[in-house]
Each structure stands twice: as C-alpha cells, then as structure tokens.
Design a protein that fits this description.
Strand content: 25-35%
Radius of gyration: 21 Å
Number of helices: 10
Number of strands: 15
CATH topology of the largest domain: Heat Shock Protein 90
GO cellular component, one term: mismatch repair complex
Family: Belongs to the DNA mismatch repair MutL/HexB family.
Distance between the termini: 63 Å
CATH architecture of the largest domain: 2-Layer Sandwich
Bound molecules: adenosine-5'-diphosphate, magnesium ion
Strand order of the largest sheet: 5-4-3-6-2-1-7-8
CATH superfamily of the largest domain: Histidine kinase-like ATPase, C-terminal domain
GO molecular function: ATP binding; ATP hydrolysis activity; ATP-dependent DNA damage sensor activity; endonuclease activity; mismatched DNA binding
Helix content: 25-40%
Organism: Membranihabitans marinus
Keywords: DNA damage, DNA repair, Endonuclease, Hydrolase, Nuclease
C-alpha cells in the first residue's frame, strides 16, 4: 500500500542520490554493460537511468513495483550471502510511491517493449512500445507528494555532489561497465570500459597515471587489491578515499585509519592519501544489513582485518620507496 511504501521510501530514498544508487545497482544486477544516467536539477525534477541489461518480462515489470517483489533471492540463505546488490525488493516500490515514474523495458526475443507510467504507486498507463533491449527508468518530481521530505533537500550543489559520489563509487567498482553521466544536458562523465587503473585516471584526471601504487595481498581470510596514492600526493583534505568489501562501497572509520597509519611518517598530520582498495572476504564474516542504505558494515574480526590491511599498504609503500 502507498503509505507503507512511503515509509519505506523514507529509509531507502532519502535524497535524489539514493534513487540514483538504487537504479544503477539494479542495472548492474541486470548485467548491463552500458548505463547512462541523465539528471536534471540535481535529480529534483528528473533522474533517468538507461541500461542495456536483461530487461524485464511483462510480469516482472508489473511485479517490481510491488513491495518485496525481488527476483534476486529464493532462499533465506541467499539473503545472508547477498551476491547481488539488491536483495529486499524495496527500492522501486519506494521510489514509485514518492514520484512519477516511467518504466520502459524490453527483453531479448521480444519484438515490442513495454511502457508503464506510475504516479505515486498507481499504474496509470500501460502500453507496448518500441524499445531497445534493456531498461529505462525515469523518475520525475521526486517527493512531489511528500512536501516535508522535499523541503528537507539541500541546495542543488549539495544534492548533485551526492549524486556524483554515488556515480563515482559505483564507477570504481565496475570499471568494465561503460558509464555516462549528464547533468542539465552537460556531459560530466564518459567512462569507457577498462581496468581499475584506467578508470581511476578517467575519473580523477591524467596526473593520477603516475600517482598510484599497486596493493595486493592474498590471505585465506582476506584478499586485497587496488591502489594507494604516493605519499607526496597526499592532500590536505579528505574526499578521495574509497573502500570496498566484496565490491560494495562501504564506510569504515577503523579500516580507513589502518591505511592512514600505514603511511606513518611518510606524510604529515592532516594529510590524506588517495586510496581505492577492494577487500574480498567470506560474506558470513560480516553483517551488511545494519543500515538500509547498506553503506555501514560490521565485521566479525575487525582488528584482524585492520592488521592485514595496514601491513598490505605498508608493504606496497616500502616496495615503492626502494
Ligand atoms: P531488488 O533490487 O532489491 O530486487 P528493486 O525494487 O530494486 O529490488 O527491484 C525489483 C526488481 O525489479 C528486481 O529484483 C528486478 O527483477 C527488477 N528490476 C529492477 N530494475 C531492473 C533493471 N534495470 N533491469 C532488469 N530488471 C530490473
Ligand atoms: Mg535494487
């Protein structure tokens, strides 16, 4: 029902950037190799995500607007392991309940695509149409029917910064996906498929080509790959620190500290090195469900992971300085 969806929306979709994240993650889950993100007015008037993924059947398309209609879990055990990004079937119904949503989709083998128009949870139009294979979802006038939430939104600059963060966080985790981002008809990012280093350089600029130190660590418990910045390029402000567990962007104060401390006397206080590190470990050893937006993660053996990370970064820095 609409109210339950709006309540859920309050948890899952707090701002335009959360909607962008949910839509992009769905495209990734649908195995898209190209995702286009088109934003107007920092997402306040329009958010469109177009992908070339699997598309949806007519049934899927109608179902996905119902609560808990996820196609991604079949057993409770799956729920714990979380191989795909989405797992609760809450995002689309939540977004639909607080916006005007258009869904266009076509699966391979279908001649015609399907177009659905939804206003605040209610399907007001359904028709067949011409469509590329994949899915396009357009969210207009987010929070149009929840004025309190709309009022809570920050300035365009701030809201767009959040969208940019979401886009970049995913762009780093999926360098093999072709990603584009438009804001108010201006092209912000055109990221061609490549490896992680190429993606970092595409996002942060050509100088990064010569600023990165490769990190690699392989233990039974934990695998680490990625890059840390050279000490001499550390910046006076934070903002270029990216940490992922099982390819999911997370924030973790302790583990971030592990990286900073690995630099020891190589950088002065109040300087922060770039890093983009990917940790791979058994999903059973963590709890990702501590927050609906899934950015916070609780680790079973945080100290242990802290130590491995710190020594991996130290090791990489030592290799570099000799
Ligand atoms: P979840 O991702 O947790 O399953 P969502 O509400 O985000 O829940 O999506 C509901 C369902 O809609 C998905 O499980 C999937 O079947 C379908 N879906 C959503 N977006 C796409 C997309 N871009 N391509 C294909 N299927 C999609
Ligand atoms: Mg989802």
């Amino acid at each position: 029902d609409v109210v339950a969806n709006q309540i859920a929306a309050g948890e899952v979709v707090v701002r335009p950037a959360s909607a962008v994240k949910e839509l992009m993650e769905n495209s990734i889950d649908a195995l898209a190799t190209k995702i286009e993100v088109i934003i107007q007015d920092s997402g306040k008037t329009k958010i469109q995500v177009i992908d070339n993924g699997s598309g949806m059947s007519e049934m899927d398309a109608r179902m996905c607007l119902e609560r808990h209609a996820t196609s991604k879990i079949s057993t409770n055990e799956d729920l714990q392991k979380l191989f795909s990004l989405g797992f609760r079937g809450e995002a689309l119904p939540s977004i639909a309940s607080v916006s005007q949503l258009e869904l266009k989709t076509r699966q391979e083998g279908e001649e015609m695509g399907l177009r659905l128009e939804v206003h605040g949870s209610e399907v007001i139009k359904q028709e067949y149409c011409q469509a590329e294979i994949g899915t396009s979802i357009t969210i207009s006038n987010l929070f149009y029917n929840t004025p309190a939430r709309r009022k809570f939104l920050k300035s365009d600059t701030v809201e767009f910064k959040h969208i940019l963060d979401v886009f970049q966080n995913l762009a780093l985790a999926y360098p093999d996906i072709h990603l584009t981002l438009y804001h108010n008809d201006r092209l912000y990012h055109q990221l061609y498929p490549g490896n992680l280093k190429q993606r970092i350089v595409q996002i942060f600029g050509n100088p990064y080509e010569h600023r990165l130190i490769h990190v690699k660590e392989d233990t039974d418990y934990l695998k680490i790959t990625g890059f840390v910045g050279k000490p001499e390029n550390a910046k006076k402000s934070r903002g270029e620190q990216y940490l992922y567990i099982n390819n999911r962007y997370i924030k973790n104060f302790r583990l971030t500290l592990a990286v900073y401390q690995a630099y020891e006397k190589l950088i002065d206080d109040n300087s922060y090195p770039f890093f983009c590190l990917f940790l791979q470990m058994d999903p059973e050893k963590m709890d990702v469900n501590v927050h609906p937006t899934k950015q916070e993660i609780k680790l079973e053996d945080e100290n242990f992971v802290f130590n491995i990370m710190q020594s991996a970064v130290k090791h990489a820095l030592m290799q570099y300085s000799v």
